[in-house]
């Protein structure tokens, strides 16, 4: 029996803030890998009023690839990643949602691996992981590695979520599952990804993992600061106390 995947459609959510250099490359790569595998998909770009002209670049890309492939759902100003996903999901026509960063840290070559693993096991969620098998990070300094490892380690210790990469955001979800997860999540910012996967486990959703190599952004500025670290720790403690 050959399982048909023809009815599946993948909505790829790409939140952008000042990604004008990265956007054309990431779109080109997504199209390349999705077309190669013959998947049915759409790319939804949620730009939050980037001052660098990301939206203009997105419009040009839309005129190249067509408006059934590239969908633009911009917002006036920077409102944060959590709400960007919700906003994008509202307009998604696929039964699966793939979330990834637009800064080339997440390589589109992994998307078909996510999809194949999901199909093989009917997983509710497939998460990219830097902490299993061939996964890893490249271009991070010691401080950033320590923070990421530390956040993962602490969360593993306190919450035992049963997934190896908690702070990553490169993930594939069944759409209805993502909807329920987002509804149940209270945190905003960096910690949101961690809460999503912890809740997924609590709600007894099945999670598959694909080792990914994560490459630090080359263009644009990093936004991870001290306040994010504080927020993460507080949210972790909150989850620990309440779940
Ligand atoms: N729409 C929208 N996108 C955002 C916002 N903040 C970040 N992004 C995008 O979300 C993705 C992840 O953000 P990043 O800035 O790369 O966050 P990070 O990977 O934790 O940190 P660095 O890569 O080191 O900057 C990127 O595609 C950003 O352009 C926002 O407020 N709104
Ligand atoms: Mg990034």
Automatic annotation (TrEMBL):
EC code(s) of this entry: 2.4.1.83
Top-rank EC class of the record's enzyme: transferase
Residue intervals of the Glycosyltransferase 2-like domain: 11-181
Source organism per UniProt: Nicrophorus vespilloides (Boreal carrion beetle)
Matching SUPFAM superfamilies: Nucleotide-diphospho-sugar transferases
CDD domains in UniProt: DPM1_like
Name of this protein: Dolichol-phosphate mannosyltransferase subunit 1
PANTHER family from the UniProt entry: DOLICHOL-PHOSPHATE MANNOSYLTRANSFERASE SUBUNIT 1
Keywords: Endoplasmic reticulum, Glycosyltransferase, Transferase
Pathway it works in: Protein modification; protein glycosylation
Catalyzed chemical reaction(s): a di-trans,poly-cis-dolichyl phosphate + GDP-alpha-D-mannose = a di-trans,poly-cis-dolichyl beta-D-mannosyl phosphate + GDP
GO molecular-function terms, A-Z: glycosyltransferase activity
Subunit structure: Component of the dolichol-phosphate mannose (DPM) synthase complex.
Keyword Lipoprotein in record: no
Protein task: Transfers mannose from GDP-mannose to dolichol monophosphate to form dolichol phosphate mannose (Dol-P-Man) which is the mannosyl donor in pathways leading to N-glycosylation, glycosyl phosphatidylinositol membrane anchoring, and O-mannosylation of proteins.
């Amino acid at each position: 029996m050959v399982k048909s995947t023809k009815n599946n459609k993948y909505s790829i959510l790409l939140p952008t803030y000042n990604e004008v250099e990265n956007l054309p490359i990431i779109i080109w790569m997504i199209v390349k890998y999705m077309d190669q595998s013959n998947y049915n998909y759409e790319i939804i770009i949620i730009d939050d009023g980037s001052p660098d002209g990301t939206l203009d670049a997105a419009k040009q890309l839309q005129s190249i690839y067509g408006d059934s492939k590239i969908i633009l759902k911009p917002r006036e100003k920077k409102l944060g990643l959590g709400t960007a996903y919700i906003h994008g999901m509202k307009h998604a026509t696929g039964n699966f949602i793939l979330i990834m960063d637009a800064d080339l840290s997440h390589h589109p070559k992994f998307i078909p691996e996510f999809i194949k693993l999901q199909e093989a096991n009917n997983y509710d969620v497939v998460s990219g992981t830097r902490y299993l098998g061939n996964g890893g990070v490249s271009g991070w300094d010691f401080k950033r590695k320590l923070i990421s490892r530390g956040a993962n380690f602490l969360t593993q210790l306190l919450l035992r979520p049963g997934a190896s990469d908690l702070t990553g955001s490169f993930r594939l979800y069944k759409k209805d599952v993502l909807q329920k997860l987002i509804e149940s999540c209270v945190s905003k910012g960096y910690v949101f990804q961690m809460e999503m996967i912890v809740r997924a486990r609590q709600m007894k959703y099945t999670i598959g993992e694909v080792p990914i190599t994560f490459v630090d952004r080359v263009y644009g500025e990093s936004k991870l600061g001290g306040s994010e670290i504080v927020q993460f720790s507080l949210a972790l403690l909150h989850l620990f106390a309440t779940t």
